[in-house]
Design brief:
This protein has helices spanning 44-59, 79-95, 108-116, 149-152, 158-173, 182-190, 195-203, 213-221, 225-249, 261-264, 268-280, 293-304; strands spanning 3-9, 14-19, 25-31, 66-73, 103-107, 122-127, 131-136, 142-146, 254-259, 284-287. It is of the alpha/beta class and 307 residues long. The protein folds into two domains: 3-118 and 291-304, 2-Layer Sandwich (Nucleotidyltransferase, domain 5); 131-137 and 144-287, Nucleotidyltransferase, domain 5 (2-Layer Sandwich), CATH 3.30.420.40. Helix 1 packs across helix 2 (79-95), helix 3 (108-116) packs across helix 12 (293-304) and helix 5 crosses helix 8.
């Protein structure tokens, strides 16, 4: 029997699945974070190889029985970065006398897209800490919208929303902004009473800006005008992602799966986003992802054999 392996590596954990050629899951395992950053290139191979080795041991097979491996990693969307990771993994494997039949590094978004639509055409809008949209057209070409990072992009994501909430609080503290219940939340949750304390927390104590988004969303739901404005602005940015991808793909219906903690989970923000999006795009159709990203990576692994 021959096997495929699909891996989905993110900022908190890495999921791995081994399947047969019909993409039936035979075993799955989880390892540590493997999202690619400039600082962790050397740690990624150990995580990936250990997961592959666990699958091999569990099924009592040889490495040459694993015909193809696809690894979807957060941060690996650029070709040069994917090549660096590939080199590191294969070199580390060879040092242990492990030789893979075939292995490819792709972005986690590409794996998620394959899983969401079982290899068929469609689009995914990922919205967690940041935001990015991927689409696959009828000619199997991949397209990307957004995902420019927190400095010049990631509109609609948790970091951008949390950042705007903290800006609103800072402005209220020194009289430049409107009253918002965020200042009360900042005191109750973090014991921050004034602008200087807020500055210290953000710049010296590594304040988790993206997690503050949930307070912005909750306050907007409670009727806080400042937070309602922030939520509306971020939703409009995400709708721009939808318009852009819709113009690229030119399909009807325009099927979109929502992925990531902010949009995939039911909350005030996700509900309002869906309502406004459907009103903005007549051909929009939200669908549930068919398979998780690690299965999407296994689908990609199978396709590698046909390329």
């Amino acid at each position: 029997m021959k096997y495929l392996i699909g891996i989905d590596g993110g900022g908190t954990k890495t999921k791995c699945v081994i399947t047969d050629f019909e993409i039936n899951k035979l075993y799955e395992c989880v390892g540590g974070a493997s999202a690619f950053t400039k600082d962790n290139l050397d740690s990624i191979p150990q995580i990936i190889i250990s997961l592959i080795e666990e699958c091999k041991t569990k099924l009592n097979i040889n490495y040459n029985d694993i015909k193809s491996i696809a690894v979807g990693l957060s941060g690996a969307g650029r070709k040069t970065d994917a090549e660096k990771i590939y080199t590191k993994i294969t070199e580390a494997a060879q040092e242990r006398r492990i030789y893979f039949s075939q292995i490819k590094i792709v972005s986690d978004a590409e794996a998620a897209l394959e899983g969401a639509f079982n290899g068929n055409t469609g689009s995914i809008l990922i919205c967690g800490t940041g935001s990015i949209m991927f689409g696959k057209d009828e000619n199997s070409n991949f397209h990307r919208v957004g995902g420019c990072g927190r400095i010049i992009g990631d509109e609609g994501g948790g970091y951008n929303m949390g950042r705007k909430g903290l800006i609103a609080a800072a402005k209220y503290f020194d009289g430049r902004g409107e009253k918002t219940e965020l200042t009360e939340i900042i005191f109750d949750e973090f014991k921050i009473q004034n602008q200087q304390q807020l500055i210290n927390e953000v710049y010296r104590n590594n304040f988790d800006i993206s997690s503050f988004a949930r307070f912005v969303i909750n306050s907007a739901e409670n009727g806080d005008e400042v937070c309602i404005k922030i939520v509306d602005e971020e939703i409009e940015e995400l709708i721009l992602h939808l318009h852009a991808m819709n113009n690229i793909l030119k399909v009807d219906p325009f099927n979109v799966a929502l992925i990531g903690s902010i949009l995939a989970n039911e909350n005030f923000y996700s509900k309002l986003f869906k309502e406004k999006s459907v009103n903005a795009l007549a051909n929009l159709n939200f669908v549930k992802a068919e398979y998780p990203p690690e299965i999407g990576a296994a689908i990609l692994a199978k396709k590698l054999l046909n390329d």
